[in-house]
Amino acid sequence: MNESNTHQFHTLGDQPVQGGYLTYVMAAFGQGLLLLIRRPRLLLVSGITLLPVLIPIMIAFFSRDQYASDGTDIFIQLATRLHISVFVPLLSLFFGSMLIAEEIESQTITYLLTRPSPRSAWVLGRFMAYALVATSLLWLSLTLTYVACTTLADLDFAPIHLKLLAWYAGIGILGILTYGTLSMYLGAGTKRPIVYGVLLFFGWEPMARVIPGIVDFLTVMKYLEALFPPAAPRLADMAVQSTLGEYTKLVYSVQATHALLVLAALFCFFMTMTVWVLRSKEFAGTRMAR
Amino acid sequence: MSSPIIEAKNLSKWYGEVVALNNIDIAIPQGVTGLLGPNGAGKSTFIKLALGLFSPSRGYVHVHGAAPRNNRKVLQQIGYCPEVDQFHETMTGYEFVYWLNRQWGMRKKDAIETAESACERVGMKDRMHDLITTYSKGMRQRIKLAQALAPAPLLLFLDEPMAGLDPRGREEIFGLIRQLGDEGLSVIVSSHILHEVEQVTDQVVLIYNGIVLAQGRVSEIRDVLDTHPRTIRIAGPNLRTLAQEIVGNVDVLGLELGDGHVDIRTRTPNETFEQLNQWLAKPGHTGYTLQCTDDDLQSVFDYLVRR
Questions:
Q1: Helix axes A162-189, A98-105, angle to 10 degrees
Q2: CB B53 to CB A284 under 8 A?
Q3: Using the 8-state DSSP alphabet, how is residue B2 labeled?
């Protein structure tokens, strides 16, 4: 060990000054961001998220002039059925569920829990890092898809529909925030967040949309859908045909303001639950400890 | 006597039906203290309770007079070097310490300075900007130590800090712990290797199967064990003749002739030591050395767990 230090080492009773709440939030944000952008599978996820860009390019390449679709229509279909319905839950699950779960699995959480930082600041900072990365990827994919839809070949270019892009970008971030807190909570509170997340987001949510009754109110997508632009296809307007017969689900709509309130409430609820789990659960060492 | 820095009363911790700690009372004074016991004895559980990572199932543990769980004031005074060899592997050693400094609440400038000085202090200055994945086990251990030291804590928990270190590395860590103790820092060193703890302190807490067998100075603990015979070793020439003479003159329970030495077992070590000294001082009895062979921790521990 070095006896002679070039730097002044803090000695007993000479601890560095601690910053305020924001210092802790920014510390968790910075660390979280660094960890996220260095994740080995980030490139793969980015590639998957950008796949929709290829669809309008292929349509433009293969379609004949007389059958050319309207670029904006293609964009709306892609943004609704892929970006919002698939990639928002997918990105949330991939990044959000691992925000805390990875620290628990790797047992590095003990370093963090023995720091005198407010748990809420740590959760908030980490979540901000996730939201930044996930939103950036989603927005990049949305923007490139929009550009590809509206500028290639014979497809319609309508700059006025930039508003549409901003609309979906807004819904996208609301989805990232709501699904993200739910995923983060699953990561903190359960042993298999990915499994539960897949079951919830890609099992329960699509299923609830076709089950008769009002169980679709117990999905996040119901409230995101309420914010879709008027031209967007309705995800729940579907006729279900089975061997037993055929029925059309009666869909109760939600007002946009109510949807926003529910999304905000879900965000706050799962954020609070995550902080509560971190404060009350015993994580040290392994998940064996309760 | 000053109040203990860590105090546990009726402390129990169980996971389901597994009892990790069973109704223990511990009072750890300031200074360097060894937490000793075999693997699974309950050392790490005790440390995690003292760090507030676990809640007691029964009883309490106080650090600097306060319950540590979710207590930022207590955590501010604590440094922790965990047993597990886990890191944020995509970071460099410096980044790892820096970001944990930031989590401690340091502002950027302080976090940079303390990260650099902590890495330097544990001998990692030259490699601190390399990825942790490229480090040897010893280097990883040093980085763990650096992150614990960086915020200048008043109380440092080192859980098996010598694990994976080569002999030179161990010596350096021993030296550092002694130095920290000299600086006034309270250090709790957990180990299942008794020899390691002897290198840094004679203040120990012995834990076995979730209960505290003994706590205090090694010599004090040994003195309490009057019922156990102790061994005095005499080395020198003509041991067979010596042994015959001793049997009649000294209070011995047993005597064992070894290679170049004779071991005497007695229940009255002080008196026996005195008698032997007098006997060896007689003319013609030169070239002998006396040594109490079971004053060390291993012997104490062996006695206590009746192995």
A1: 30
A2: yes
A3: P
Please tell me the least confidently modeled range out of A216-225, A248-257, B103-112, B173-182: A248-257
CA distance B112 to B165: 27
Average pLDDT across chain B, whole number: 86
For A28, residues 6+ apart whose C-beta sits below 8 A from its C-beta are A117, A121, A122, A123, A124, A125, A126, A128, A129, B103
φ, ψ for residue B305, nearest 5 deg = -95, 5
H/E stretch holding B52: none
Distance separating alpha carbons of residues A264 and A224, to the nearest angstrom: 11
- The whole-model pTM stands at 0.82
| Spatial contact of B35 and B8, defined as CB atoms under 8 Å apart | no
- CA–CA dist A215, A197 (Å, integer): 18
Closest CB to A284 among B54, B95, B183? B54
Query: Do residues B304 and B194 lie in contact, with contact meaning Cβ atoms separated by under 8 Å?
Result: no
Distance from CA of A180 to the nearest CA of B (A): 22
How many other C-beta atoms are found inside a 10 Å radius of the C-beta of residue A142?
Answer: 26
Residue A112 sits in which domain range?
22-280
| A8, A30, A285 ranked by CB distance to B117: nearest | A8
SS3 call for B47: helix
* Cα A107 to Cα A92: distance, rounded to the nearest angstrom: 22
Please give the ipTM for the structure prediction. Answer: 0.83
A1 in any annotated domain: no
Cα B272 to Cα B266: distance, rounded to the nearest angstrom = 7
Residue A86, in any domain of the structure: yes
Structural domain total, chain A? 1
Which of the two residues, B26 and B295, has the higher pLDDT score?
Answer: B26
Q: Does a structural domain hold residue A7?
A: no
In-domain check, residue A287: no
Q: Are B208 and B38 in contact (CB under 8 A)?
A: yes
- With residue A147 as reference, give the H or E element that holds it: helix A119-151
Residues of chain A under the 70 pLDDT cut? 1-13, 63-69, 152-160, 235-249, 284-290
Q: Hey, is the C-beta of B112 within 8 angstroms of any chain A C-beta?
A: no
Give the amino acid at A47: G
- Among residues B173, B169, B162, B181, the alpha carbon closest in space to that of B83 is found at B162
